[in-house]
Amino acid sequence: MGYVEARSLHKHFGEVRAVDGVDLDVKEGELLVLLGPSGCGKTTLMRMIAGLEIPTAGEIYIAGELVDQDVPPRARGIAMVFQSYALYPHKTAFQNIAFPLEALRKPPAEIKRSVDWGAGMFGIRHLLGRRPRQLSGGERQRVALARSVVREPRVFLFDEPLSNLDAQLRAVARFELKQFQRQIGTTTIYVTHDQIEAMGLGDRIAVMNRGKVRQIGTPQEVYNYPADTFVATFLGSPPMNLVPRDVHTIIGFRPETFLPKSAFPADVHVETFQLRVREVEHLGSDRLVYGSLEGFQGEAPVISDIPSTITMPIAEGETYPFAVARPNLRTFDAQTGFRRDDRAA
Amino acid sequence: MTRRRWLRRVKRIALYAGAALFTLFAIFPFYWMLLTAFKTNRDLYVGATDLSHIPWIFNEPPTLQHVQLLFLGTPYLTWVRNTVLVGAAVVVITLVCAVPAGYSLARLSGRWGERLGIGIFLTYLVPPTLLFIPFARVIALLGLQNSPWALVLIYPTFTIPFCTWLLMGFFRSIPRDIEEQGLIDGYSRWGVIRAIVLPLAVSGILTAVIFAFTLVLQEFVYALTFISSVGKMTVSLGVPVALVRGDVFYWGSLMAAALITSIPIAIVYNLFIDRFIAGLTAGAVKG
Amino acid sequence: MTALRREAHPSLAPPAIFRRRTLADREDLLGRIMLAPALIYVIVLVGAPLLLAVLLSFSASFAGSLEFRWIGLRNFASILADSQFRLALRNTTLFTVISQILVMILAVTAAHILEAAFAGRRVVRFLLLLPWAVPVSLAAMAWTWIFDSTFSVINWTLKVTGLLSGWFYWFGDPTLAMIAIITVHVWRMFPFATVIVLAGMTAVPQDIREAAVIDGASFWRRLFQVNLPLLLPIITVSVLFGVVFTSTDLGVVWLLTRGGPYNSTHVLSTLAFQRGILGANLGQGASIAIFLLPVLFLAAVGMLRVARRTEVGA
Known about the structure:
heterotrimer; B: mainly alpha; MetI-like fold; two-stranded antiparallel ribbon; 2 strands; about 75% helix; about 0% strand; C: mainly alpha; flat; disordered N terminus
């Protein structure tokens, strides 16, 4: 049994099925990312685990204990960080961090010690006297994290805590967050719509769409062996190329595996295509080649991601032989979208 | 000067002239109140047929006698006291009802909460000039004729709907996240209301208090219907009805009273008008 | 692949101090309890009296006693036959419609003028709120004084500028009295309406209006096809409030004219007051005041429509 478990979880808002039958198993100490586009149900799922929403059907277990309507959020041993950080505006940073400890009726001396420890962990000791409006976005985030840590919860729930930071700060914060979670070892569930963030942070990723979990696996697994066409196109930028081979089959291959034939050594088994180039984008470290495959019904638009180490000139309007190594080729069922493959994850 | 520049200047002048005209129309009665309140009787009571006497200026130096009469020679201060007492009682009743109701409708009521919110707001539209008839019967039954308690009982019928709607908007403006964070951090919903929501809503509650008080200050119909003794009147009733000897009004004192009463209300309205309009324009539904 | 840990975590059960669900957690119950006082007050002291008003209109009730005798439609029959009632009905409609039309024209014009960025706009806005801030009874007294037959400063001004040859006995002549009443209503409401429309205008996105200018639309075209339609919701709300407060007003008419001269300026409210309260005929008073309900109902429906449309995001 996992540390956090969801069984056949449903949440319906009238007609809308926000969460439509989810089974989830979070291992103790791992950082599981719930990834998906907006509206896929990831936040609703997290809120049900937190106790902020009551499931329409299904059960949730935390550390083996059933948590339902009778177990309010404060009794579940969880800490949550919202996208907005939800700092109490009328309290100082110190008071914000101390708040959960005051609710626990801890003695003031102990509170002071814990706040100091938490603040120290995130390097914000010098900010404790300030109010939230006097703090920058990054500083507020740290206060929120410190607040979540001081009550030593069983599970951390993070709802897109990095999306309010600007891009530069985000990468650094992501790294530090991962370090922090590794160090403290608490089971963590993390919601995001950003697949790069998911790939960088997660021990495992649960990819969700329309209320259902489409795949759970390590970043490598979901990236290289996507369970269906949704996962295949959601992960990766640019997304996996999907081309209908015939009425029943769609073949898929990632742009970075789709290279000029001449780039492959002779002994590698490849599948060859004729690519008519429409446009070439020079991005510095790579070139993105947009074009379409010849010999397929319809458009068959594809993208190739050529690293700068391959210098073969590509001209717009021309047609070139491109190839994919056989092991990198995926097949999907055209009706269901599921990956059809002998290769298990 | 080019023709365009000339046109623009004309337009500008017309604009300012227009604005001045409107403002003048709105303001001149107050100027007239000011003059009347401080003019000597000799300067004031000159028949308007006498075109040589200009009523729009102080022809004699201003006097404080009307103001003195108002405070010392009329029941005005008694009326002020009555108004303050009735107002205080009404404000207390209103807060006790409207603060929890406003929160409940903002956060705890879901779909039917929206409907009820509108319903409560609409009761504000039911006019005193319809309800005063049945109230006459109710007040008679309770034996509260000619008593300020009648007003204390009836005034909340419009202050509560108004303030509930006002507070609903304030509570809605507190981010939901913060309340949920409180739930996770260790409080029950009631605990969150006490520890987090109320401190953050203080300005909203203050606004409600002030608006409730101004609503009491302005009310005329119920006071006219239920209070007959001069000594028990409120300002809004006493000034028009009892500042008179026989057929002759004490105009100087009357206008002084009108000025003294309007300015604080105008200041208050000015401070809170933005919030009030925001609530209004978003419809009665969205606070 | 588990994460590295400093040490094995002891089983972190939530602290015992946090009991299970208590009453303070029951949000549905809490919601109802918190709503109850206000709801009860409104139902008992607005809903019930409203019902009572309707019942009284079908009864012969007088203020002296507590009797209640059902007489069906007789009250209605007698007032409909009463010319004073019909006059009051006409006056209510007349005053409301005329004053609101004037208010709207003035308010929209004034708002457009004030919108052109303006030094001293805050001061002007404060001044414009004064007529609304004055208690209605005190404003009525100020205007009674302004229209006084002997001392009227308006008469003086008109006479001095040569615009008046005779003399205006404002409250002695039925037509002049009506003009006076309408003037006061307009004076009270148009500044507030201006502030509301102004606020609505600032809420309208600037780019839409600028696009119309760039598209080359003339001033009038822009006004009627772009600006006014965008302002429609807020103008509607303002008009509805104005209609409700003007049609149900008692203070202005009562203090200015007492319904005179010769009962010619009575409105439904003042007539209901005179017959029902002063005349102690509660039944008849109620039946007169009931005629205010259709207006209120229409206003309520109107506001709901506007609210719904803004919700949908028109």
